[in-house]
Amino acid sequence: MRAKNRLSSQFLKTAPVGKHCDGAGLWFVKRADGGAQWVQRVTVHGRRREMGLGGFPALSLAEARKRADHWRKMAATGRDPIKEREAEQRAARREDISLAILTADAFEARKAELKGDGAAGRWLSPLNIHVLPQLGRVPVTDLDQRDIRDTLAPIWHTKADTARKAMNRLSIVLRHAAALGLDVDLQATEKAKALLGKSRHVPKNIPAMAWADVPTFYASLEEPTLTHLALRLLILTGVRSTPLRNIRLDEIEGDVWTVPAEAMKGRKGATEAFRVPLCSEAQRIIDLARPHARNGFLFPNTRGGVISDMTLSRHMERRGLEARPHGFRTSLRTWLAEATDAPHEVAEAMLAHVVDGGVVRAYRRTDYLEQRAKLMERWADHVTGGAGQVIKLAGAG
């Protein structure tokens, strides 16, 4: 049998699923899904290495043999073909060191740290909208503080939060470029801030309803519609809109709703979910919403997803209210401060706020679920018409 060139073009067209050797370390791999690819096996310093050469039929038999011969000869000199190819790819990428390319590369490196691997696009959007249209083609090594200043000046005072995020992202991209060995000015963003000056923008808090007014509003949500039920559960649990709107039936077990870690804002990289105690009224609202459930979601919309945050906000806006759904977290926190003696750490845990440093949290392994459950029942008593009297928590200290 021939040591090389064992396969033929005719055979490749009807090759069965499996690995087929062409000789000299070149293999044709036919997958069960119908696709196929070329794989080259080489031995370097006594260690066998396996590298993909490309897919078939895009890479023909003749071209696959040429590539295999190239990498086989390289391995014979003691050089690792896989590392050599990676070096070539890196060199090719360096030929285009525009800000747009480096931004995409930096994003890929950070995706694992972002919620949902950054699929929502929020990390990139400040740059995609306000920076890359003007500076995307500029080599990152040429980028200076004047470029950044001129680009962000139009939004520096009017959209301060967006401008701040864009500046922070730019700083990350520059550090990423420096780590790749590119000669960039790591101080460019700080210099740009000095040129732009202090922002005149005054941030506004999300309007919140006074806790004393919540019972009247809650009572007005009397129809068993998804919007009314979602707003009721939002008020009762004190969670943010996103996890509330995306609540799934399989996250609810008895009187506890477990919010997945990736759904919790400010808990990037968290490995623990957040438990929300469900008071009797919250469980009643969930039971009323169950008939609406679809695809596992308690609050679905007609398009296969879930109801939007705008749906909840517009409901309140149409009622002539200044307050917005997120503001009910403020209502709850203010009630905790003014109408209960809940310890600070318990009150903050009610809203899933992270308090203290990592070392302290590592030793304090409790989420105060029992104390929070009692407070949630009292909060429900208030919003459903109770007096909101001062509550004493036995043993909460």
TrEMBL record:
Belongs to the 'phage' integrase family. This is Integrase arm-type DNA-binding domain-containing protein. SUPFAM superfamilies: DNA breaking-rejoining enzymes. CDD domains: INT_P4_C. The keyword DNA-binding applies. It comes from Pontibaca salina. One of its GO terms (biological process) is DNA recombination. The keyword DNA-binding applies. InterPro entries: DNA_brk_join_enz (IPR011010), Integrase-like_cat_sf (IPR013762), Integrase_catalytic (IPR002104), Integrase_DNA-bd_sf (IPR038488), Integrase_DNA_bind_dom (IPR025166), Integrase_recombinase_N (IPR010998), Phage_int_M (IPR053876), Phage_Integrase (IPR050808). Pfam families: Arm-DNA-bind_3 (PF13356), Phage_int_M (PF22022), Phage_integrase (PF00589). GO terms for molecular function: DNA binding. Keywords: DNA integration, DNA recombination, DNA-binding. Residues 201-376 form the Tyr recombinase domain.
